[in-house]
Amino acid sequence: MDRVVIVGNVDVDIIAGPIDDWPEWGTEMGVDTVDIRIGGQAANTAVVLADLGVPVDIVTVAGNDLFGKALKQRFVEMGISVDWFDLIEGKTPHTVAITHTNSERSFLSDESVMRFMDVDFVSGKLARIKGAHILFCGINVLNGLRRGDLKALLESLHDDNLIYLDPGWPPDG
């Protein structure tokens, strides 16, 4: 088993900071840096594995917009298989992360097209997969998987695959 399949969220991360305190409403605050990069637990994991030379597939969705197309193209350039990465009508998710001077972070995220990432979508993509390591990432932000019959999906994939689960942060923060 040398194939790794990552199932989960991708988004565009916008990271700003550091700051000591939140600005007052209706004001603007300057920061030292604002970075834009690939984000989401599944995306970050796939990128690291690809950098290590591990064959990796990603099962996910993004919007059929500039950001979704750019993410998918960048994954191809990095050697990540995007056969199960669907661009669908809608907006690619974004997360804004604000960093504190003590290195803590706060996140503001939108779900957008990730709501289509449900049990039916994933089971349709992985119906015939055998002999893989399958990692589910970011379940905390994938309401379609949390609300669906995730347990039945995981059990259906258990034969001839190794299943891993990274639940992420609790859904309430």
Key words describing this protein structure:
173 residues, alpha/beta, UDP-N-acetylmuramoyl-L-alanine:D-glutamate ligase, five-stranded parallel sheet, four-stranded mixed sheet, 5 helices, 9 strands, globular, kinase, PfkB_dom, Carboh/pur_kinase_PfkB_CS, transferase, kinase activity
Topology at a glance:
Elements: E1 3-7, E2 11-19, E3 33-39, H1 41-51, E4 56-63, H2 66-77, E5 81-88, E6 94-100, E7 105-109, H3 119-126, E8 132-137, H4 143-147, H5 150-157, E9 162-166
Domain Carbohydrate kinase PfkB: 3-120
Protein name: Carbohydrate kinase family protein
InterPro entries: Carboh/pur_kinase_PfkB_CS, PfkB_dom, Ribokinase-like
* Estimated share of beta-strand residues: 25-35%
Count helical runs.
Answer: 5
Q: Would you count the extended β strands for me? A: 9
Biggest pleated-sheet summary: 5 strands, parallel
- What coarse outline follows from CA principal-axis ratios? globular
Cα radius of gyration in angstroms? 17 Å
Low-confidence stretches: none
Strand order of the largest sheet: 5-4-1-8-9
* CATH top level label of the domain at 3-11 and 40-92 and 113-166: Alpha Beta
Give the distance, in angstroms, between the N- and C-terminal Cα atoms.
35 Å
CATH topology of the domain at 3-11 and 40-92 and 113-166: UDP-N-acetylmuramoyl-L-alanine:D-glutamate ligase
Bin the helical content. 25-40%
* Mean pLDDT rating: 91
| Reported CATH architecture of the domain at 3-11 and 40-92 and 113-166 | 3-Layer(aba) Sandwich
The CATH superfamily of the domain at 3-11 and 40-92 and 113-166 is identified as Ribokinase
- What's the helix-strand series? EEEHEHEEEHEHHE
Domain Carbohydrate kinase PfkB: 3-120
Keywords: Kinase, Transferase
Pfam families: PfkB
GO molecular function: kinase activity
